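Standup, Tuesday
Yesterday: got the pipeline producing structure tokens again.
Today: sanity-check two examples.
Blockers: none.

Example 1:
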Amino acid sequence: MSTKEDQMERRHASSGSPYEATIGFSRAVRLGNHIAVSGTAPIWPDGGIVLDAKAQAKRCLEIALSAVEELGGSVQDVVRTRMFITRADVADEVSEAHGEVFRDVRPAATMVVVAALLDPRWLVEIELDAICS
């Protein structure tokens, strides 16, 4: 006997990161109406990094929301964000970038100061969840 979960299609979105196959992860996964987006780093298409926290946060959100859209969701479907920052003094810049995107959506949000991210130039990494109608 099959369950509702068995009948749900599992879809993946890739950001093209060379680590996805090596580590075994996807930028985002959609199962049913839930989209989970992995921690997203501020990497530009050319592989470069900008050392400004607000610009990094905007880039993280651009990548994450692109994955949500690829899987059929939109910014209005985002219900939770998690922001990992490496320095408390960049919280206002990251918050401002988050507010520009989510001012009207107002998802549940968490910001945590962490000791480090994988690349020492990264000041922020963001993950999010969306529930699509």
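Example 2:
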Amino acid sequence: MGKDSKQDDPEYKARSVALRLLARREHSRQELSLKLRQRQLEQTVIDLVLDEYESEGWLDDHRFADVYSRQRMDAGYGPVRIMAELQQRGVYFRPECLADRTDADWSRAAAELREKRFGLDSLRDDLTEKLRQARFLARRGFSSAQVEKALQIDSSEQLWTGEEF
């Protein structure tokens, strides 16, 4: 079979495109399926290739969810936003790295993000600033309880000690 005839084969094209995409970064099954459909490939061919790649261990939604979640946590995003982004990518389960973190861990992460972005000045007398910081943390995907705990900390308190979270 010549090179031109291989490139005309939809199964060959699906395999090569999927493998090239997976070599760059982890993808969810839904992401790969969408990218292959955008290349005008038949859904039956796509399903065949993705099933094979899953059985080979090259495509794994659990691995994708774990890697993606860790990257987003490192970038300062909270659990609500991370789960919403995973669901947009076809992952409807809670990855282990998210399930292992407690509410106190997330509150601490929100407080760290607040300290990095705004500092830990007291917000007791400045409702406008408190609301601005609360909106920022909420957009980042922290729950209202986590945001409230993060906003209660000021520079006179020890951020990393105690069970106050």
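Quick observation on example 2: The chain is about 65% helix and 0% strand. The first helix runs from residue 3 to 8.
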